[in-house]
Amino acid sequence: MSKFEEILLFKRMLAYISGELITKLIPFLFLPYLTRVLGPDGYGELAYYLALLAFFFIFCNLNQGAAIQRYFYFYGHRSFDLIKKAGLIYSMVITVLVCIFTGLTNNYELILLAICSYFQVLHNTSLSIFQSKEDATSYIKTQLIAVIISSVITILLISFVSKDPLMRIFSLAIGYLIAFQCTHVLLKKSKKREIKITFIKLVLGLKYLFAFGLPLLLNNLAFVLKGQFDRFFIYEYYTKAELGIYAVAFQLASIVPLVLMAVNKALTPYIYKRLKNKQLSNVLIFKYALAALILAPITFSISYILPSNFFVYFFGSDFENVSVYFPIFVFGLSLHGSYLIISNYFFFFGKTKLLTIVNILSTLVYIASIFLLNILGLEFLPFAIFISNIFLVVTLLIVFLVDIKKTEN
């Protein structure tokens, strides 16, 4: 890589990381407001709704962002708008079906969650297009629009309408929709010419999307289960207040994987280019994945020394026990860096089935750990993330080594 490419990569990575941190920092700064206004019970209920939203998003999205990026780097930009439109039609159909079914059962909360997940898909698709085009500025602006608008609307609704946690879900939906409308205008202006999309082309786009996304559906479901199953478990067997405290600790700890994913998003275009040109060796990928494991004990040590008064000051006296869960979550989530490095290899070469199998096994380990650790008490449940992620990374490294040996032979 030339000196110019190194500077360009560094600037792009810095832009993505800065943008991700700024857009994610706003919800984190917003967290003390929500905890104090909603209290442990209200925040626990919100955590439950957000867990349901994550599951809706998996089925509604079908990994469209990754499909668009892969199409762009394999086939170019000429027809990748076809994949976008095919994906959005699929998402609309799924959303309508969910709304009809939940409407018949008079479950109007789920209708709101389904609509919010659809708007989130629109928003994420736009982000993936900007990322594919390496347009960091538009990527960051889009994120900021969604976050700022949803935060402002949340404050207005909770202050003047109701302290119902669903007000936050409604605000997120509006934020996603407005951000999508803004980016739609930007993308339309940047198009050199409109490509006519016929029914046959649309079917081909859907086939590509299903071929790429369906094998990853279980993979993504497994991934979300690892972050949300404990919410459902605690909601069922413990109080909403305990879930609220637990969820705040996880939300704080999630800053670590957010930073890691921001770095990964910045590096993905570069990694794909290097892999395509055979300029990135498998040995180097393996070494980077091993080196990323060092992050876990470092972040754990930093988070462990934070006193409980720190959390009381920001979130209120009801959230003192956040300090019990926070360091353990940080330890487990810091292992995500190694997973991201290895998964880029499997995504690029379309070996998503291997990734899915390992993720499903890891999720089964996670669920089993939840039930076993629950015998010891609620404070031990965060260790399930650490146990399952250790299993995930070690297994994936072994699978990676086996796969590259088969490829070489």
Give a verbal description of the structure.
The protein has one domain. The protein is an all-alpha fold and 409 residues long. The protein has helices spanning 3-61, 64-75, 80-104, 108-132, 136-160, 166-190, 199-237, 240-253, 255-276, 282-292, 295-304, 308-315, 322-333, 336-348, 352-373, 383-408. The protein contains 16 helices and no strands.
List keywords for this structure.
about 400 residues, globular, mainly alpha
Biggest β-sheet strands, sense, barrel: none
Query: Could you give the distance between the termini?
Result: 28 Å
How large a portion of the residues is in β-strands, by DSSP E? under 5%
Average of the residue pLDDT scores:
85
Helical proportion, percent range = over 70%
Number of strands: 0
Please state the overall shape, judged from the principal axes of the Cα atoms. Answer: globular
Number of domains: 1
H/E element order: HHHHHHHHHHHHHHHH
Q: What structural class should be given to the helix and strand makeup?
A: mainly alpha
Low-confidence stretches at least 5 residues in length (pLDDT < 50)?
none
Number of discrete helical segments: 16
Rg, Cα atoms, Å: 21 Å
